[in-house]
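To: structure desk
From: M.T.
Subject: fold request, one chain
Message: Could you run this one when you get a chance? Sequence is below, nothing fancy, just the single chain.
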Amino acid sequence: MNRFEKGALGVMGMMVAAVVGVSLLTPVDRATAAPRADLAELKASLQRAALQPVVLPPKPILHGGLQALSTLHRRDTTAKRLSAAFREIGYDFQRVMAGQHAVPRLFLPTLPRDMAKIRESKTRKAVFFQSILPLVLQVNEEIRAERRRLWRLRYEQATGGTIDAVDQLWLIALAEKYRVKRGDVTTLLKRVDIIPPSLALAQAAEESGWGTSRFVREGNAVFGQWTWAKSGGIVPREREEGKTHKVRRFETLMDSVRAYARNLNTHPAYKALRARRADMRHAGDPVDGLNLAESLDRYSERGPAYVETLRSIISHNDLLRLDDARLQSDRVI
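Reply: Done. Structure tokens follow.
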């Protein structure tokens, strides 16, 4: 065996080890029945989806004023400075709402700690949405890449093709990540799907008090996810006696958004949401955040009242217009 062959085998070995390592991070859901494959639906979905290889986010290309760029990356920046920085780099939320402008790949590590000091409600909402929207779109891009690859592999299986070792390992890791029984691609497709920006933004606004809550200030907890881990987390000040839950803390806002999407896509409490979303896909309808909100009565102890709040936020702020928003293709700030 020559040096090239040894080197190639070594690289392949490291790749396999890495994928297997990822697959062990989350336990497998114990039992998920695999429905029969619908080949007609599969072919139709493949025609609707452009099958592209998984692509990593592009490398950063800095643009705009140096002062604006510095402001965007500072964890101690103020809401006023952040709003000014948005204007300086040309991030106009109204143009995004109108579908006239793509969303910059602007991934803030934290929200300004003084969001509550913005007196004008319209301005505070715009800064909040501008901060969270790019994160939601980025996470949805990652999910779409997984979904495209999953559809391609399912099609190969359905047509008698052979799945190579790398793709087989990827499927195992994906099943572990989404808590699905290995080999159950049909159930995976119900889980590996996007969260409409309208719904994500409405929940982020409600759960974080439009970016003013103690949990988002201390732990980037945009969606108020609970944890029962012994270490870490933020103890709610008004937690009922005998309760042990905490609010999960995150290093960055992006971590919080990724955990939120995974929560909706894996937790048994949101099975109805995933089923409703799958029905939309099957009917060829867009994934509608206002419609999906109906399935989130178990997200909060408020139940149906919580759902009505989400629907009100979506409608009042015209957030459905953002469900078609897309990130700029070539810039990361």
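Reply (cont.): Residues 121-158 form the longest helix (38 residues). Let me know if you need anything else for the meeting.
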